[in-house]
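Re-run with default settings, no changes from the original entry. Doing this only to confirm the output is reproducible before filing.
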Amino acid sequence: MLDPISIDIAGLNLPSLIPMVIIVLGALAILIIDLVRDNLSKSFYVMVSELFILLALGAVIGYGGGERGFFDVMLMDGISILGQIIILVASALFIPLALSSSRFHEYSFPEFFALFLFMIAGFQFMVASDNLIMIFVGLETASLALYTLIAMHNRSRSFEAAIKYFTMGALAAGFFVFGSLILYALTGSVEIHKIEEVLVARNFEPIWGVLLAVVFMISALGFKLSMVPFQTWVPDVYEGSSAALAGYMSIVPKIAGFVVAMRLFEFLVHADVIWVQNVLWIVAVVTMTATNIMALVQEGVKRMLAYSSVSHAGFAMSAILIGTTQANSALFLYWILFTFTNLGAFTMLWVSRHKGNKTWGNTRFDHPYEKFSGMVKIMPINAVIMGMFMFSLAGMPPFSLFWGKLYLMSSAVNAGFISLAVIMAINSAISVYYYLKLVVYMFLREPNAGDETVYMKNASTALKTVIGFSAAMTLFATFYVSSLLEVITEYVKASGF
């Protein structure tokens, strides 16, 4: 007779699941409410979504349980908590953008908000586990929801963008599965910390197997992080999405990818596996440089910001190559500061989005540079705020991303990556050109006739509040960046990174 299986409930550490459960319950609550009573205002669904996001954020910040939970699948270490905080804060800032003045198709469906919450839960599971199966489940949950959210914008470009994203995402999922399969065949485990133990004990033999697994994993995460040469989907998908969703995609999926990449690759870097370091160096440098050059020739502001976000991802990827505590802390600091600035920049595009006829010359894009000609003479405050976001993205002091780039480059210098720090500085200088190009259009060109209202066509109190908050966090970073870095460093050190 077989002995009964006993499960220690206390050992399961169920509180580690609470943040994700809250978000999933929020999504299910929206679907149930819609079944019981339809035609409710989108403001109601925004408030419900915001409530569950803030409850989950409180559960993450107040988490006091052990690191492992739910059959050791969940991992609530420092970088897991940091990653979830960034995901939830960015999501809380994004969801009010649904309260736009113009009526856009996707926000009329409660399913939009339910899918958005399911997507958040997927990203949370990605960062809160070192089990490759759980990471894959989280990745696919988030990706499937995101494909649908893109298509719900209901334009021909949106359908094209969703199909492109789905096709590339399916390819990336295949790469991730093959990489996981090889790692399991080599080590007998799908948990990253056990894979590390086995590979270190074997001195990373057989080398061909480890090489093949790393190539598949870099390819899979390269898609999610939009690393070169897997970035080809980015401009078209961003162009087909709403400006609000494009801004979200430039931030949240990437931080989830960075946390997974940190867990997967840094133990190889710390073990002085030279070829892994060389591959990561090439990926980071080529990504930040190639996309910077591509951004120089763009005619639409949204496409320029799309390539810009890829370049910033290349900057952040450098931290995983460096692999020190200072570099990892700088990565999270950089991405938090980037979150506020980039969300503000894309929200500025969102407030000027409208369905009417375009009066400017270039009709191919929703936001060509010509659209912003002479903006300072019509709406000077808006022009100054958008200019501030551009200066911050370029890394000019005293705006927020200057500090992010400074700490990241100093971590490279302190770790002996002098050439990498020089390349990062050169790329920052190159980026000034295309950021200032928009500033030139806003401040030195004559305004377009009949465009007096276009810059605030889609504005509402909610959107203005998000822009104001993003602008304040961008402008006054000097006063909080040191304290923020100390908190981040404590979390990173607690994770052993």
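The two ends are 47 Å apart (CA to CA). The chain has a mean pLDDT of 87.
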